[in-house]
Amino acid sequence: MIKIDKKPNILVIGDLMIDHYLWGSCDRISPEAPVQVVNVKKESSTLGGAGNVINNLVSLGSMVEVISVIGDDSVADELKNLLEKIDVKIDNLVVENSRKTSKKSRLMASNQQVLRYDVESIEDINEKSSQKIIANLEKNIKNYSAIILSDYKKGVLTPSLTQDIIKIANKNSVKVLADPKGKDFSKYKGAYTLTPNKKEAIEATNIDIKDEKSLVLALKKLKEECSLGVSLITLSEQGIAIFDENLFTSPTVAREVFDVTGAGDTVIASITFALSCGLDIKKALYFANLAAGVVVGKIGSATASLDEIYEYESSLHKSSSSSHIKTFDEIEKLSSKFRNQGKTVVFTNGCFDILHVGHVKYLQEAKSYGDVLILGLNADSSVKKLKGETRPINTQDDRAYILASLESVDYVVIFEEETPYELIKLIKPDVLVKGGDYEGKEVVGQDIAKELKLVQFVDGKSTTNTIKRIENAKCNN
């Protein structure tokens, strides 16, 4: 996995709406009509439509701006408040007084949707609104890493406006990615790529996608007719297929699927984010599949953070050992996240110069005391002070990489100091683990950790003994 440390500024243009939920229970039928009576106990509202794409981008760490058209109503005020809560500017929202801002209300009884009712305008926006959108785009186009067109067929992305947006973006070398709607994709012509699912692609191309041959034909047709940089089709559990010069399929990595709501928004958001951070299209697809794997494991329209994606990839045993080696800043953020999740964090430290069975059993027992084991590793300079000038035998980078490869070790952090006290202050572990030889002694960091555990060493197993045996073998030869 390529580590992402950028914060691109991505523009989302499309149909904003509010997803409104009324939550309750039902235990009787109305005497007035054969319908359920739902006793509503709470209600909630979230950003929907293009707003869900925005939520996904914000969760990934991107800066986000939005252009859309809303009405002059209470729903618009609610929508603006939700955007401001996630630090998304509302300066480029165009108001049409006669327009109703989209709000979809769902009545939920015992987590089952009983009814949905929509209040919205779905006619095309007027020419004046289109001109304002173009003026805003031309004024700020240089600020954007990429543009997402989130089309829900609510009237914002008219054919002429969509074409104008793509032409302006292409003129300024800004990639446009669109989540298309309808059977006619011609209005997205010139975009970098589209993200239709299999059903949408079949309807748009009139090609029945049933095997690799028909998939390639559909991808080629989309690329040629829409003048795309890369042709793409999402294939649900089969992953994502693209056609550039050749067919390439990035397989799904979802382990458990609880809900696919909003997964399409996650895919386009994560592909755009990854491309904006410098990843090529194939790596961007892999990243998007990881993000989708996180999201479908949650209930409802969900998002995925970078930490969740990295953790998910690690859980699939597809991450490199180096991704488990963290800096002080990184481990502080991770530790805070684990505490918020209610996970038990375990910390231990040592030199671990020549890894042996005693080390492995010690670390396995340490991990058994909690959910996450963080290992503080003495840097080479620190080892020399503790063990003498001839040590360590293995460099800190080699030692860290080997330790990070162990199943029992979740993260390794190298520290330069003689003791790991500053590191322990950052991590604030629940459990501090040290060797049995510390019985009755003061242990560094025990004033910070909630609990101290002492683990007995395996008799006769130590780095010092290993070195002696090597030296004796040399002498005997």
Descriptive account of the structure:
The chain is α/β, with parallel strands linked by helices. It has two domains: 9-319, UDP-N-acetylmuramoyl-L-alanine:D-glutamate ligase, CATH 3.40.1190; 322-476, HUPs (Rossmann fold, 3-Layer(aba) Sandwich). It contains 15 helices and 18 strands. A six-stranded parallel β-sheet has the order 5-4-1-8-9-10, sandwiched between helices. A hairpin with a 6-residue loop joins strand 2 and strand 3. The radius of gyration is 28 Å and the shape is elongated. The mean pLDDT is 89. This is Bifunctional protein HldE.
What's the rounded overall pLDDT mean?
89
* Strand tally: 18
CATH class of the largest domain: Alpha Beta
Strand order of the largest sheet: 5-4-1-8-9-10
> Distance N terminus to C terminus?
46 Å
Structural class: alpha/beta
What summary fits the major beta sheet?
6 strands, parallel
Rg calc? 28 Å
Please give the structural blueprint.
Layout: E1 9-14, E2 16-29, E3 36-49, H1 50-60, E4 63-70, H2 74-85, E5 93-95, E6 102-109, E7 112-119, H3 127-140, E8 146-150, H4 159-171, E9 175-179, E10 193-194, H5 198-205, H6 212-226, E11 231-234, E12 240-243, E13 247-250, H7 263-276, H8 281-295, H9 306-315, H10 328-340, E14 345-350, H11 357-367, E15 372-378, H12 380-387, H13 396-404, E16 411-415, H14 421-427, E17 431-435, E18 451-455, H15 463-476
Parallel strand pairs: 1-4, 1-8, 2-6, 4-5, 8-9, 9-10, 14-15, 14-17, 15-16, 17-18
Antiparallel strand pairs: 2-3, 6-7, 11-12, 12-13
